[in-house]
Amino acid sequence: MKKISEVSRLTDNPHLNLYHLKGTNRVGKTLNYYIASRVKNMERLKLKTKRNDPDGIIVYSLYGEKRDRVVLVRQYRYSIDDYIYEFPAGLVEEGEDYREAGIRELKEETGLSLELIDADLMFEKPGFMSVGMTDESCATIYGYASGTPSKKGQEDSEEIEIVLADREEVKRILKEEHVAIMCAYMLMHFLQDKEPFDFLNL
């Protein structure tokens, strides 16, 4: 049986750190594994708490009188040295409810306000982002965005373009652009479903 016997923190950064896991694998041989985590304290690693509290939040929202456009951001990401299409998203602050975090992040990144849909918790449940290398998880919230797009709330470190995409533009983005995988799956629903949020009524 696999067993982790020791965890050590290798970096000291504000938003993401590298941890070394030591132990034995399923056949009893020495295991050395490395993970990244958003937590600032080893005792809060999910492998220790066994809890899946969301580190971040993703906002899937529709825009316009006909609610026929989806709110996206085209953001520069250092990991690929390129731009990628994503939903507005961000980190949940200490003591902050993830829904409040989503409303705040949408406002900061796009200038838009969010009317939340009261979805069943199964649709908002935090999911792991890339579990082979990190314990980071994000919850998803849904709603209708309104207002005038603005970059005023964006941080200096952010390079974000606000995109209000109709179905034709979404098709082009999926065919031609880099798209975050969770965003891509939802955009496929947006293309195919007459009412994009119908799946929330299960």
UniProtKB/TrEMBL annotation:
CDD domains: NUDIX_ADPRase_Nudt5_UGPPase_Nudt14. InterPro entries: Nudix_hydrolase (IPR020476), NUDIX_hydrolase-like_dom_sf (IPR015797), NUDIX_hydrolase_dom (IPR000086). Its EC number is 3.6.-.-. Pfam families: NUDIX (PF00293). Keywords: Hydrolase. The keyword DNA-binding does not apply. Residues 50-187 form the Nudix hydrolase domain. It comes from the Bacteria. PROSITE patterns: NUDIX. This is NUDIX hydrolase.
